[in-house]
Specification:
38% of the residues lie in helices and 21% in strands. The chain folds into two domains: 258 residues, Aldolase class I (TIM Barrel, Alpha-Beta Barrel); 84 residues, Hypothetical Protein Ychn, Chain: A. Helix 2 runs parallel beside helix 3, helix 7 packs parallel to helix 9 and helix 9 packs across helix 10. The strands form three sheets. Strands 1-2-3-4-5-6-8 form a seven-stranded parallel sheet. A four-stranded mixed sheet has the order 11-10-12-13. Strands 7-9 form a two-stranded antiparallel ribbon. It is of the alpha/beta class. It is built from twelve helices and 13 strands. The structure holds iron/sulfur cluster. The site of iron/sulfur cluster has 10 residues, from loops.
Length: 355
Amino acid sequence: MERKKIIPIFVSHQGCPHTCVFCNQVKITGKGSTVSGEMVYEIIHVALSHMKGKGYKTIEVAFYGGSFTALPLAEQAELLQPVTEALQAGKISSIRLSTRPDAINETICCFLKGKGVKTVELGVQSMDDDVLQLSERGHTRQHTFHAVRLLKAHGFELGLQVMPGLPGASFQSDWLTGKEIIAMDPDMVRIYPTLVLRDTKLETMYQNGNYKPLNLQEAIDICKKLVILMGEAHIPVIRLGLQASEQIGLQGDVIAGPFHPAFRQLVESDIYRDDLNALLENVSHEAIEQVVFKVPMRELSTALGQKKSNVDYLKAQYSIKDVKIMGDHDLCPHTVVLQQVNGIEFNVEKKLPLY
Ligand code: SF4
């Protein structure tokens, strides 16, 4: 049984002082209307009535989209009131919201604490000021440092969101953003490779030849690097790539960029391939005819790669006729074992840099 349930409330573009070049928040969240306190009350109570008797351990209300804390305080209070009441009545367990780094100050932190908000996610996007400027974010890296300091001082759980592939970004600048994110020690990270969405300024830049999006493999390469960095720092990546929805991908709203409905799996398969490869590099390659790897059963399809691409890669790389990757229910997550080479037991184990 699923233990945690989120009640999402989309405040599309509400609170935003302007529009970032890549953003059509209506498209990202899939919802377009303005939300009121009354609507929040309705959403929560309908959701809770559907969950009744299903034994969820934790229920979280999450405000997604927009820039919650850029709204006037009275509007924030209106939206939060029914949620705070549900929290105080023990009907939900926590409250989360997302916002911009320049929309956090001491007053807002105290206000959110008073309303029972547990988690704040910041749309950092990049720690490179040139990239932020070209993306028309309207804030600098200093705003992010300042917001993180305040949120941590007030004891909020902290999420940071980054977008590789923004205008002006390079592999190096995105990697440095990852390093700076780690230095700020967030509780979780979301990574959204930049897509060109319909009806955005980025679409115009792309059509005019002023912006070149990452291709799918470039996005996998930088995201792999970031996921490994986060894994080594024990920071969970709770989202990698945009969620496929009716609005994104299926109806032509992605004009260009590295959209793939199973983006996370592509990145993790690539990490698997590197580690399978690393295990074989320690074996004498002469006359290898057969190898057997074991991976956790739940990660088998990721280890195999799309259409068994990792198996095909290893066969081609080492001229091996028979490569088997098998699932094992007893293996710990993110572990790969080179079990046999030419029928001889090896049992060499490697931990993947995933968290
Ligand atoms: S701050 Fe967020 S919601 Fe607002 S325009 Fe920028 S990306 Fe969109």
